[in-house]
Amino acid sequence: MIAIVLFGKPGAGKGTQAEFLKEKYNLTHISTGDVFRFNIKNETELGKKAQEFINKGELVPDSITIDMLKNEVEKNMDKAGFLFDGFPRTIAQAEALDTFLTSINLQVTATVALEADDDVLVARILERGKTSGRPDDQDETKIRTRYDEYNEKTAPLIEYYKGQNKYHAVNGIGSIEEITNRLSEVINRL
Fold first, then answer.
1. Stretch (H or E) spanning 52
2. For the CA atoms of 151, 84, 116, 16, what is the dihedral angle to 10 degrees?
3. Which residues of 81-104 are buried (b: 16+ CB within 10 A; e: fewer)?
4. What predicted TM-score, i.e. pTM, was given to this entire model?
5. Contact criterion met (CB below 8 Å) for 156 and 92
6. What secondary structure does DSSP assign to 89-119, as a single string?
7. Per-10-residue mean pLDDT, the chain, length 190
8. Which stretches of the chain are assigned E, i.e. beta strand?
9. Which pLDDT score is estimated for 68?
């Protein structure tokens, strides 16, 4: 069983690529955003707790996020592995994920980062914003603020996973098929 962390800046194509990879490799795609929305919409115990923090304008604590991810993993142990999208975002979250996976005799197999120039990604998001209906996809200042947050909080994960020899950078520019092929080359070597 494999566990892959897929990351990259907003607009890098994580969601698009995750759809292809989950089918190709029989992986359970665990998108933190999707997991949050499911738990909140269905008013699960964890969803209610998360909503309390969101209502106060606060970040949901890592412990609640990890518990939501645990539930998703435990429900899908029949697959060939997991593709984590949007998690971890910080070193503390990576350490919590490692601890959880170790408790079920798994470990992060690899992290694969879709890399692309900020200006290219901003253009992608602004284009997506024309149809997504998301206000944060329509404002270049907000997009660049998200990149600043990524650089501050998530980019340190590169060194964390390089230290474990689990980091793989993939060029995120090109056609969807070209990028999928690049990702597949990495996964096939695992």
1. helix 45-55
2. -140
3. bbbbbbbbbbeebbebbbeebeee
4. 0.89
5. no
6. -SHHHHHHHHHHHHHTT----EEEEEE--HH
7. 93 93 95 91 95 87 93 94 92 94 96 94 92 86 88 90 97 94 96
8. 2-7, 27-31, 81-85, 110-115, 167-171
9. 95
